[in-house]
Amino acid sequence: MKPIKPGTPGASLPHLTPVALAMALMQGMAMAQPAQNTTSADVPDATSLFETGGQQGIGPRPFTSFFERLSTPVDKILIKVAGNNLSADGVTGTDVNLQLLDGKGMPLAVDVDVTIEVDGGARILLPGRKTSESGADRGDIDRIQPGIQYTVKNGALAFKLIAPYKPDPVTLKVSVKGVVEKVIVRYVPDLREMLAVGLVEGRLRSDKFDPRVIVPVRENDGFDNELRGFTKDFNGGRTNLGARAAMYLKGKVKGDYLLTLAYDSDKDTRKILFQDVDPNAFYPVYGDSSVRGVDAQSSGKLYVRIDNKLSYLLYGDFTTIDANPARSLSQYSRSLSGLRAHYEEGRITGNAFLAQQTSRQVIDEFPARGVSGPYSVSNPNGVTGSEKVEIVVRDRNQTSLILKTTALTRNADYEFEPFSGQILFKSPVPSYDDQLNPVSIRVTYEVDQGGEKFLVYGGDARLKLSDVLSVGVSMAKDRNPAAPYEITGANLHLKLSQHTEVIAEVAHTNSVVNTNASGYNANTSSNFINRSGEMTGSAARVEVRHSDEDMRLRGYAVRATDGFNNTAGGITGGRSEYGASGAYKVNRRLTLNGEYIHSEDDIADTRRDASSVGADLKLSDRLTVGGGVRRVSQNAASLTSLTGNTCSSGTGGGSSGYNNGYGINQQGNQQIDPATGQPVVCSPTTLSATTTAPVGLDRTSLYGRATYRLTDTVMLSGELQREFGTDSTTLYRLGADWQVAEKTRLYSRLEHSRSWGGAYGLGVGAASDSFAMGIDTQYMQDGSLFSEYRLLDGDSGKTVQAALGLRNGWRLAEGLRMLTSVERVTGPTGNASAAGVGLEYTASELWKGSGRMEWRQDANNTNWLLTLGLARKLDSDWTMLARDYANLVQPRTAAGSNKRQNRFQVGFAYRPVDNNKFDALGLYERKVDNDLSAGTDSRTDIISLRTNYHPSRPWWLSGRYAYKQVNELLLGTVNDSYRAQLFGARVTYDITNRWSIGALFSVLQGQGGARQYAYGLEAGYVLMDNLLVTVGYNWRGFSDKDLTASDYTNRGWVLGVRYKFDEDLFRKNDPTVNKTLNPTAAPAQP
């Protein structure tokens, strides 16, 4: 379907008019804060109340959430999937039956529009449709909104769920306004027939003299790459024998087992975990729409995986995270390479792992800044691919508790900027969420510490004693001599009823902290300051959740002794957290709510208590009012810990707790203390005369609030809160919500609250303001396909999405998505403002584009971020992709100087679709890195071109050209430049089906005319099918007109043997493959 041009009938202008109107409305009207603390367990669509693990997905939501379900005739959704443990072959469809029931349990008689969403790479095929891909033929009645919208008649719908290619659990979700139902469909590996590809090669090389004495061995300096896996030198280094073996095998063995095996003796085994195809490496576009991926991820030379239904045995890269929702305190999360086993059969689930390594884990958590980045971590030497990036939302009233953790995906949700590898997100990360809970970024990664290898091992087991009761145990041990660590745990999950569940858990840790001068076992939490040596501690928790049509309830208790140490456990040593919250719908109009929270830290001697009781009354379909009483109590020590002066976000200066990081922009990387959930305090500050901390805080307040639905899509709300006691004042929250789609809304929030103190904005210090505007969506984040980014035969959607894609936007029209974010925070530690806008277009099959601009300003700096991207299918043969990244830091202090980084890149691909005579890839890149404060200015230009020409069957020609120029300013006064270019060509001629000859030439010309060159001749003969023998003679040398004494030319013979094979090699006893077994058999009929 072609996009409609503006001004033509059916153009999207009517859809954009309310967008512009609401944007103006939200900027000029009073902003409202939806009421809090009314529905503390708002997960009505969850199969289990604890299915997300820990406290994820729990948090205060707008108190109208109970009333959203009243506007739909649907009371219940039933989903039936025909089977489970299905084959993940990517093509097979499974029947799904959907039923919509009314309040009497009968099928709905009226037509209703539903939204169907699915993740994990699965697809939906609607009845009467031939395709499950995105597009007009899929049957989606609203292609603007995410997911599939479809009209259900007579309360029933039958469709097919198309299997993914990967054997992962798939979530199928169906929703009608506030009524949601979802099921988890398990997929197992597809028992496909055997596929095998591989090669074995050897090479004997004899030179005039040892080339290593003259110049380091270089790859590709002759006809073939140097073989590094197996090598042996003779004759004083002048003769070299090398060999290589590489293969990939996947297929069914012994009936019901799936074997995946990969091996490469020449593989680069540098520390890279979960190696994948990097869309930013090499050329930006290849003119090929095939999907590329890595099936056997291993940082070693060998990968083996054996699957049997839901169980598997793996040798390769893995993570140790356990999906058991009852595990939190004993959770052990590492990215390792080694042996892992998973067993799942009947009522038993078990895991075990063993790795031998030299790496340690580093966890950085720092506040989000309202922009996409860039954000740096504390150690730039992390193991590539080991990172786990999460967005963490903490409870604003109890910041040591995490409400929600969202794991992000590399290249889809974030990438690494091209200069120093800092993290750059695909959308702004707000400082606060829509309920003004603080948002932070947590990055967990591995760092190679070197030295002798040590073992890391562990396991867990879970037994389902009955349909309602499960128990589990776990242990993990890290035998790192610099940071030994051990953790054990036990857990219980009990379903008291369909709506009520209980989990309980205990954990015990043994660790050594703060004893190593290199920082290998450093613990920066405030609860471990001035403590070192061996630490032993335990923790326990119990949690109850209840959720039905009338009541949402959550109660919890967590306690950890002083020596407990688990960064993935959600609590630090010496802390106690207790609380309960919930809401009860008395009738269709009245809702009661209440909350109690208690936090205590034995080490810091802090204590906080908060409670709230209230009611909300729906006076009409548009107006709801509420009110209640709140109380906060804190001791003086807890106030002192909050009135410290957090580290400056512009200098770093070695202050304790500040992540200096690296790169152009280090702002905002102050570490979060997991003990408090607050930024690490660098040094205390003296409060002003009007904000002197009292002996303790004991405040009571009354509040009143209201929401008014201005239209069917725009809701205004506000709250007033009056403190009673010393220095009493009036606090308020204002905001607005605009529902731009069924499950997507724009929100804005303005809050006026105390600078320091406890829950509900009550506390001490001058009042401060916080303002935020952003987008909130309830659509499944990974429920869309890459097909919307796919160019027509030009490039895969995954590659284009990595280069151009923006996340978390709201759709203005089909294929048109917008990003918006605004926030401002004022307070005694300084003011900070951030704003951003982005636009993405993907509707056309011929071109895709995106752009965004973000701005942030605080007391130290003004930051600008700009990204642009364009992918274009020029015609049937030509494809182009261009992108630009710019980052500008403008200090607001007299001593500072601007810092600027800019990378512009454009690439093209020529791939004819009707012949393969000629193809080409090209790239131009310009990088500017300017920092006048450091006296550096670097400008780099790069050109790269590769071509292949096949004029006729026997002729094969290829060429390459590369150019690089660098102009630098060093130390503010020294100018330097460098220029180099590379020419290369190769030609091969097939004399017969068995004989071939070839020649090559390459030269690298550097600064001042210095040249490195290589040329040679080669002849090849096919001894038998797939067995090639080659002999060649190479000339390699170096010349420099200024260094004539260093000129040399090295000559030598190269003898090579190469054998390639496939799965037929293992089927010699099959007459259909080995014809000699039955030479008289009649030929197969076509």
TrEMBL record:
Any single Gene Ontology cellular-component annotation: cell outer membrane
Keyword Coiled coil: no
Protein keywords: Signal
Low complexity biased stretches: 658-672
Gene3D superfamilies: Porin
Origin superkingdom: Bacteria
UniProt-annotated location(s): Cell outer membrane
UniProt-recorded name of the protein: Outer membrane protein beta-barrel domain-containing protein
Species name: Variovorax terrae
